[in-house]
């Protein structure tokens, strides 16, 4: 073999080694990436399972007394289009559409963390359960008398009456049919507030 032939072979070997090395680096990085994605996914599923269990344990009552439950309807509209973004709860409709007729009871034990008027929610109450999960009741016509922020609430306790308040300044009502908007939020404390679909949890305890 000539000297130039040898040099050619050496160059070729170096080239192949470099390609192999780069391949190894790419495979290594891919493994790290896949491992990261899988670990994050598992964490997410574990967290969702934990939250699911907490909600099931928290929600002892459907937010409407049993006696009135055949007079309401509700569907899964979580994420459905609304003027102000995606729908973050479940709307429990009064079939007779009469303001202040149907009592609203707390689904869970907890403490009243928010009570008062919201531009969209109207007269609303927010109750934080011991689990840290936040339960939001909106559009009420009135509150049960004497309720204030900081009050301890027991599951099944009357908190107000179903109405159509909201979408305006304090006192606005009748801009949409009478219903209770029931929302569930997690991670309120750390500021990463996240809406959970309340429909399946309502469905579980409806009429029983
Ligand atoms: Zn709603």
| Gyration radius from CA atoms, angstroms | 28 Å
Distinct ligands: zinc ion
Number of DSSP-assigned strands: 13
Residues in β-strands, percent: 25-35%
Low-confidence runs of at least 5 consecutive residues: none
CATH topology of the largest domain: Glucose Permease (Domain IIA)
The separation of the N and C termini measures 91 Å
Average pLDDT works out at 94
Helix content: 25-40%
- Number of domains as seen in the coordinates: 2
Q: What's the SSE pattern?
A: HEEEEEEEEEEEEEH
Shape: elongated
Question: Total number of helical segments?
Answer: 2
CATH superfamily of the largest domain: Glucose Permease (Domain IIA)
Notes on the protein architecture:
This protein is an alpha+beta fold and about 210 residues long. The protein folds into two domains: about 60 residues; about 140 residues, Glucose Permease (Domain IIA) (Distorted Sandwich), CATH 2.70.70.10. The chain has two helices and 13 strands, in the order αβββββββββββββα. The strands form three sheets. Strands 1, 4, 6, 7, 8, 10, 12 and 13 form an eight-stranded antiparallel beta sheet that branches. The protein has a three-stranded antiparallel beta sheet with strand order 5-11-9, with no helix packed on it. A hairpin with a 5-residue loop joins strand 7 and strand 8. The termini are far apart. Bound molecules: zinc ion. Zinc ion binds next to loops.
